[in-house]
Amino acid sequence: MPKYFTKSAFAMSLECPRRLYYAYDGEHYANQDVNDEFLKSLAEGGFQVGEFAKLCYGIKADNMVGTLDADDAIAKTIELLKQENVSIAEAAFRVGNMFVRADIIEKKGNVINLIEVKAKSWNPNEDSFVAKNGKSTNKAIRPYLYDVAFQKYVIVQALREMFPQRDFNVNAFLMLADKSRIATVNGLNQLFKIKSEPNKRSKIIVADNACEVIETIPLSDRIVRPFDVDDICDKIIAGQYEEQNDPEFLMGLRFQPFVKIISDDYCNHKKTGCIIGSKCFSCPFHKIAKDTDDKILDGYCECWVEKAGFDPSMTDKALIKEMSGQYIGTKRDELVKDGKFFMENLTDSDLKMHSGSKHKGLDHYERKWLHIGVATKNENILKAYRHNMVEDTYLDVPGLKEEMKEWKFPLHFIDFETSAVALPFYEKMRPYEQIAFQFSHHRVDMNEDGTYKVTHAGQFINTEKGHFPNFDFIRALKAELDQDEGTIFRYSNHENTILREIHRQLDARNEPDKKELQDFIDSITHYEEGKVKYVGDRDMVDLADVVLKYYFHPIMKGSYSIKVVLPAVQNSSDFIKEKYSKPVYGTPDMPSANLSEPKVWIEYGPDGSVLSPYKLLPPVSSYLGIEMDLDERELNVTESIANGGAALAAYAKMQFSDETMSEALKKALLTYCELDTLAMVFIWEYFHHEC
Is 667 exposed, middle or buried (0-12, 13-18, 19+ CB in 10 A)? Predict the structure, then answer.
């Protein structure tokens, strides 16, 4: 079967042309993205949006070009296009070595509307497809615009060959989730059940009444709708936008020459040129520890060897890849271009030594230099930090003591699981509006003798299909936290963001306890209006911020994700190792709401280091029919989809599942979220013990 340059290949070429070579034959090169797409689509609702769009255009099974054979698909497309008026899903077009399947083709006489469907949010009142200067496309949506432009480019040429006696007018549209609109029916998402298949593909099972439901929704109320991008596509194809002047975009070529070169290179399995940059750090064609097959190649390393003269998998030097976050993340590309691949190459001209302003603990600059010093074993750098270090672990005990003086017992540790999908689960919701479906709450009580008790004090999860949970969620949280004035902890800003969103949602509803709930939210959060900042009397303490200021362990590298900090703390603390290597958790002295038997949380890997407790639980993804243990993927500087993403996907699956599967997912979610707040307790216990 010949190899064709498809729209997915074109999309990959926009990220990096060289990736096409590694993707050409998936058996030879490692690829860490193999299983991500299903989970992402399941979580975000991408599959449902595609089916929703088909029903909006009234496409029946006979008008779906489902065959995988290119010749058969083109033949069926030609037959369908002979009709005067017709709508087609997956219509196939080929010209030369380029082949595309259009999500939707709507033919009305000689007019053909090309509709590319994306599960992306768009607010026509706030967003624009072009930059403010009108000379370039909006970078945030640029890949989608170029995707549909490529399809139009191929389809226009293909139609001339398919119907040489006809003159068609092709118009391009992007069908997006319109955030300015509100769902007018309940359970829209649940009309499209997602089922994963053993071959790791997936399919949609559309509810019997789905077409009937969608037909009742007026065009003006449909939350996924087409936006006209035809003029923009014509300018892209003509090479009129400024981004095509950028030597790092489209290889420095205009659209049409780029397409010609890249399609030929791909189909002939020829390596296209590449430019090394910080984007390479996220390359999926990179072997990780679990890729033990020596026959599997590493495309990421091949590029570095070719363009920079070294193999990052072979070097024992610390790479700037490990660094991210404020003040360095955006500079990494500049550093790579300057040939500064290693941390040892950095100087204070690349990164300031400190902010220069008064602050508690480490500021962002100092933390990065501490990271550099530890990674490069540079004592000239570390001498400024050694007074708070034991070997390579940094802990600012005096600073922590001052911080902890402000905390009031009992301490409360909370974590939320939330969902935001394109097709809302509930009416009166906008696309990608937040749903808070679960929380976990651990409490620490201090006794008069200085001992303390850890209790999994409470939790909430919504399992009722078709029920909007946010107000029940906030009522349950209020009941948990209103019993005292103890300090409340979150990890990072997610919980504050969600609570402010629920506050906004309450504005639009007439709940009987609306003011009481909003007052509670105001008391434990902070927000800004204009330039004025409001801080609640009991504003939650961000434990991640405490970690950033006062603690560093080498295995954290540039990350402060709780999934990375937790094993760092466990490896740092003999106290934690000793306590939790025994079955003390899930006992009357340390109650758990979900574990029926006492649990040991400290286990050791082959190298003698403490295993992450998240590896001691069955991954949520295992309940989704996905073989890959996503929780065991290597973590670099951001949380992987293995964490909150898998939980989000599990909640989405609960909306379609039978009682047995729903109960299994509920148990997995409750145990998973319980560990999130227990992880916060571990961190606090370490700090408390050391202080």
Answer: middle
| C-alpha–C-alpha distance, residues 331 and 626, integer Å | 37
Do 652 and 42 touch, CB atoms closer than 8 A? yes
Distances from the Cα of 435 to the Cα of 222, 459, 633, angstroms: 20, 16, 27
Nearest Cα residue to 370 out of 442, 413, 322, 334: 322
Q: 521: part of which helix (H) or strand (E)?
A: helix 514-524
Q: Are residues 144 and 121 in contact, defined by beta-carbon separation less than 8 angstroms?
A: no
In terms of DSSP bridges, do strands 224-228 and 169-178 run parallel, antiparallel, or are they unpaired?
A: antiparallel
- Using an 8 Å Cβ cutoff, are 524 and 536 in contact? yes
**Whether 671 contacts 617, CB under 8 Å:** yes
- Long-range contacts for 7-11 (Cβ within 8 Å, ≥24 apart)? 7/100, 7/101, 7/147, 7/150, 7/151, 9/263, 9/266, 10/146, 10/147, 10/150, 10/259, 10/262, 11/143, 11/147
Is residue 118 within 8 Å of residue 146, measured between CB atoms? no
Closest CA to 565 of 484, 495, 635: 635
Q: Write out the H or E segment, with its range, that includes residue 194.
A: strand 192-196
Distance CA 54, CA 91 (A): 12
pLDDT of residue 650: 78
Rounded-to-integer distance, Cα 678 and Cα 672, Å: 10
What pLDDT score was predicted for residue 190? 84
* Predicted pLDDT of residue 67: 86
- Give the model's pLDDT for residue 448: 93
| Cα gap 122→125, rounded to integer Å | 9
Cα 148 from Cα 102, distance rounded (Å): 9
pLDDT along the chain (691 residues), means of 10: 91 94 88 62 68 93 90 97 97 98 97 96 96 95 98 98 95 97 90 66 79 92 96 98 93 96 96 89 86 84 93 91 74 88 92 88 94 95 96 96 97 95 89 94 96 97 90 98 97 97 95 97 95 95 97 90 92 94 95 93 91 79 50 32 60 79 86 94 97 92
Chain mean position to CA 622: 19
User: Residue length, the chain?
Assistant: 691
- Residue showing tokens 């801080």: 535
Q: Is 551 exposed, middle or buried (0-12, 13-18, 19+ CB in 10 A)?
A: buried
Alpha-carbon gap, residue 492 to 45, rounded angstroms: 25
In Å, what is the CA distance from 442 to each residue of 184, 401, 425, 490?
38, 22, 29, 11
Nearest to 643 by CA among 535, 559, 549: 559
pLDDT of amino acid 536: 97
Cβ neighbours around 486 below 10 Å, total: 18
Long-range contacts of 364-373 (CB under 8 A, 24+ apart): 364/325, 364/326, 364/327, 364/548, 365/327, 367/548, 367/552, 368/323, 368/325, 368/327, 368/328, 368/558, 370/394, 370/552, 371/322, 371/323, 371/343, 371/552, 371/557, 371/558, 372/318, 372/323, 372/343, 372/346
DSSP-derived letter for residue 263 is H
